[in-house]
Design a protein that fits this description.
The complex is a heterodimer of chains A (430) and B (108).
Chain A: H1 16-39, H2 51-81, H3 88-110, H4 116-141, H5 148-175, H6 183-215, H7 222-245, H8 249-275, H9 284-312, H10 317-354, H11 372-395, H12 398-423
Helix pairs in contact in A: 1-2, 1-3, 1-10, 1-12, 2-3, 2-4, 2-10, 3-4, 4-5, 5-6, 6-7, 6-8, 7-8, 8-9, 9-10, 10-11, 10-12, 11-12
Chain B: H1 3-18, E1 22-23, E2 28-29, E3 36-42, E4 47-52, H2 62-76, E5 81-86, H3 99-105
Parallel strand pairs in B: 4-5
Antiparallel strand pairs in B: 1-2, 3-4
Helix pairs in contact in B: 1-2
The chains are: A mainly alpha (430), B alpha+beta (108).
């Protein structure tokens, strides 16, 4: 028999109750990070290993970026793998554990009390991530179809597990002797497993599906995505092995070049998807997300000079390390989240409010559920703050750091305001 | 108006009604987006069946789109029970967007 055949009822999507707590927590963490940035601006003129910088970095990495990614993953992974999320209960458990652990960990870093608060916090975060990874792994194993995006996501969760396990070992190593060398030695490995293995791999895996989808683009190129996957994972394995057995600048440069090549391939993928799009008018949220793709290149472009500077043992190395970290957490990751929050969260809220209100009466579209002028103001404050603060780090200029931090705090405040508008949206009485 | 003409008119009004049901993400109606594969009127069973797809099998908006299509048919084709049947064979492709839909998405 030819022609379309019925395939069954509408697939169940992840409940908004699972996803929204992650977004709300992340928004508050971004605001708290911006407050800490303002209070600790001068720390950015000193050495990179400082309690306040460790606290801000972990609040940004875990409270902001990881929490929003975990929330979005519970919604997006079923779309990627074309299968239900295995368990809502595991999702609640992962939220609860991570939500309790992150403040303890950040408090421990901020006060540089690396005893029980930080160790308990780190252990809770690890337990929460194990619940998340189990949920994703079982969901993927039950999926009917395999695709490159799901492989990116699953591999990223494995790198996340390694990152957090190593991080916890480093914490215990501060107070006892767990590892052969001091914790400071292993920090670059911990940071790069997290940034490249978890954030980068996951963002590329999900972004490669979402960017063409939101642009309504016909472009697809699994071979190119597999090349990106192999380049990044090979770079990570090579970096990890070299770090543990035979650290060498040449290997670091090779790994950075492999990641840069992967990013250039991904940028090419996005460009082709953009050129072949059917939807010509690109909204502000997609513009900010595409800006994030461009910002992806910035940390690597900072990393390569950084390694060169290290080779020459210049006194400016410290500024470059700080700038490198700043461009990752406040640059690329933040830009991406600022854009993608308002592409994903409005749908979740819309489904929550309007799913059962089917009628021919006019309903608002998801994009109408938040304030666009506030979004534009947030994007402008963010860009201004990012550039000023980055210049402040580069030139060790406190006035630039303070002004940049104020603008970033304004961006975080406006972001929270718009997220609040979304989360409290009620249908009109008409 | 004979039976065939009446039937055609009823189907045409049903299609017109579906042009008021938008995919909330795209902002384009389900007919021009190419999601509606077929509309079948069963006069004996007093049933109108819409065979349609979604842009993705796990489209987060799927439940709402199907509910709106059902409601649109119920309000337009009085006396007939609306039945919405989903299919992902063939899957939706961008080529299924109508010329009018493409013009809308191009901003013209």
């Amino acid at each position: 028999m030819s022609g379309p055949q019925p395939t069954g009822p509408v697939a169940k999507t992840t409940s908004w109750k699972v996803v929204i707590p992650f977004y709300a927590y992340a928004a508050l963490s971004f605001l708290a990070s911006a407050v800490l940035l303002l209070l600790s601006g001068e720390a950015f003129t000193g050495h990179w290993f400082q309690p306040h910088l460790l606290a801000i970095t972990h609040l940004m990495a875990l409270g902001w970026a990881t929490m929003v990614i975990l929330g979005a993953s519970h919604q997006l992974v079923p779309v990627l793998i074309e299968n239900d999320l295995y368990s809502d209960k595991l999702a609640y458990l992962s939220f609860g554990l991570a939500a309790m652990g992150i403040p303890l960990l950040v408090y421990g870093f901020f006060t540089f009390n690396l005893g029980w608060p930080a160790q308990l916090g780190g252990s809770l975060v690890l337990a929460g991530l194990l619940a998340f990874i189990a949920n994703i792994a079982i969901s993927i194993s039950k999926s009917k179809r395999e695709n490159v995006h799901a492989v990116f996501v699953f591999t990223a969760t494995i790198w996340l597990l390694l990152t957090v396990s190593l991080g916890l070992a480093l914490l215990f190593n501060f107070t006892g002797s767990v590892l052969p060398r001091n914790s400071l030695y292993y920090l670059p490995l911990h940071a790069h497993l997290g940034v490249v293995g978890w954030f980068l791999l996951l963002v590329l895996g999900v972004g490669s599906r979402l960017i063409p989808m939101f642009l309504i683009s016909k472009y697809t190129n699994p071979r190119l995505l597999w090349a990106v996957f192999l380049l990044i994972n090979s770079a990570l394995v090579l970096y990890g092995l070299a770090f543990l057995f035979r650290p060498a600048m040449a290997t670091d440069l090779l790994c950075a070049a492999m990641v840069l090549a992967a990013l250039l391939l991904f940028a090419r993928y996005c460009r082709k998807a953009y050129v072949q799009r059917i939807r010509k008018k690109v909204d502000d949220q997609m513009k900010v997300s595409l800006l994030a793709v461009a910002l992806l290149l910035l940390p690597v472009l900072v990393l390569l000079p950084l390694i060169s500077v290290l080779l020459a043992t210049s006194p400016h190395t410290n500024n470059m390390v700080l700038l490198y970290g700043f461009t990752i957490f406040f640059g690329w990751l933040t830009a991406l989240i600022l854009g993608m929050t308002f592409k994903t969260l409005p749908f979740i809220v819309w489904n929550k409010v309007y799913r059962h209100r089917a009628s021919l009466g006019k309903m608002p579209n998801p994009k109408d559920l938040f304030s666009h002028p506030v979004y534009k103001a947030m994007a402008a404050a963010y860009l201004l703050g990012f550039v000023l603060f980055a210049c402040g780090i580069l030139f060790s200029a406190t006035p630039l750091l303070k002004t940049g931090a104020v603008a970033l705090l304004a961006a975080a405040g406006l972001y929270n305001w718009n997220v609040g508008v979304l989360l409290t949206h009620q249908p009109s009485k008409k | 108006m004979n039976n065939t003409e009446a039937r055609q008119a009823l189907l045409a009004s049903a299609y017109d009604a579906l042009k008021f049901v938008d995919d909330p993400e795209v902002g384009l109606n389900v007919v021009d987006l190419g999601l509606v594969y077929d509309l079948v009127l069963d006069e004996e069973a007093c049933k109108i069946t819409c065979l349609m797809t979604l842009t993705s099998e796990f489209c987060p908006m799927g439940e709402s789109i199907v509910a709106n299509v059902t409601e649109a048919l119920k309000m337009t084709v009085a006396g007939y029970t609306p039945v919405v049947t989903l299919t992902f064979d063939p899957p939706w492709k961008q080529d299924m967007i109508s010329e009018a839909g493409r013009a809308f998405l191009s901003g013209y």
